[in-house]
Amino acid sequence: MTYTSQKPAPALTLDPLGPRFGAEVIGLDLATATDAELAAVRAALVERKVLFFRGQSLDDDGQVALGRRLGELTPSHPVVAGVDEAHPEIYAIDSADNGFADVWHTDVTFMPRPPLGSILRAVSLPESGGDTSWADSQLAYESLSAPVRDLVDRLTAVHDGNREFGYYLAQRRGGRGNVWEGETVTRLDPVEHPVVRVHPETGRKGLFVNPGFTSHIAGVSDAESRGILDLLYAHLTKPEHIVRHRWRAGDVAMWDNRSTSHYANRDYGDTRRVMHRITLRGDRPVGPAS
């Protein structure tokens, strides 16, 4: 399977993890990749949704430089400060500082413009455990029955960052977060997004709700909201919609935040697990009705 840019590019060697979802990119050094190779990576990312790169030698500087070649970087997070003053773009997910991601989520959907994608690098790993799984939200949508697709095409959901980060913003940042989309984050007002997101590059539809940040479906009763969301979450995380990655030292993962959700296993006890993440600036989600 080969992806190329408009200019001829060396073929990417992909080891697909599923028929349509996920792949390991074989033999590409991200630190020395050419512009043409990264254009091919960018195309493969949209098509396969999550890509894995083994044996990389990136440090914090290299990770940021790679991200800037792939798109426009956001700050580390709307609320959480960067890993240090020299790298405000890097979000350190550190189990020693309550850095866990053991709930299915799509990154930062509680903001009006969630990130386009994420690049995650393993920094310190437990001897075993700490795998991460990704779910294909487009395949999940397409495998719903037609009547359910017709229903969710018309729905809007509320996403609320206070559930996860409200306390952090108030207590650890003194009510003053990072500059996100040109404005300093001082509170996390809930936002609405379509339940079904149309991918801006492919036009494919995918489910755009997640247990981490979606609070409820707008315009329906609480019972109806719970029923609809429970149905969608159970369907999204069916085994045939999921790929799972066992981390090794030097691993880098990239994913399209517009078409996936992910979950990190918290099964390594007191062993420390540290991951560094950067995110690419995205756009406002658009649904079928738009």
Automatic annotation (TrEMBL):
Database matches in InterPro entries: AtsK-like (IPR051323), TauD-like_sf (IPR042098), TauD/TfdA-like (IPR003819)
A single GO molecular function term of this UniProt record: metal ion binding
Keyword terms of this UniProt record: Dioxygenase, Iron, Metal-binding, Oxidoreductase
Name the UniProt record assigns to this protein: Taurine dioxygenase
Keyword Secreted: no
UniProt keyword Oxidoreductase, yes or no: yes
Cofactor(s) it depends on: Fe(2+)
Family the UniProt entry places it in: Belongs to the TfdA dioxygenase family.
CC terms in the record's Gene Ontology section: cytoplasm
Domain TauD/TfdA-like: start-end pairs: 15-279
